Structure of Nucleoside triphosphate/diphosphate phosphatase:
Amino acid sequence: MSFPATGSIINIQSYKHNGYLHRNWEDTVILKGTPSQVICGNDRILVTESDGRQWRTREPAICYFNSKQWFNVIGMIREDGIYYYCNLGSPFMWDKEALKYIDYDLDIKVFPDGTYILLDEDEYELHRRMMRYPSQLDTIIQKNLQELIMMVTQKKGPFEPGFVEQWYERYLEFR
């Protein structure tokens, strides 16, 4: 799997388990791209929903994807600190059109003080039944949810102090 060069501008696309496009983020800059990890940045980019609705993000963000983890992390840089939005989803893939993953609805929002809340449990349950997620998939999602919570509470990986700031400085070099 070859990746775009550092500094390349890509789209990020999330899909649902049934294969339908869920959301598309444009104009995201690759800061690091390897077969196992992608770190990218964006700021006030256009997002298109599956129903055609469009909106712009409000702040700079650093996005973290890992090929072995069933989640991705978006560190949003706001005046009062860094907020994280974490999507439980399949490991990423790159197919020259976009960086892609399957969104499995469960999300964690992490606040600057390190507290967090689990979001969209009802949506996960609805889609799990509606799209007939296999029991093995549910096991993977639950295991990765626990791994993600552990990373949040232990401030590891993209939650490590300085991680988002360091990559944001790198992102500014490409603007």
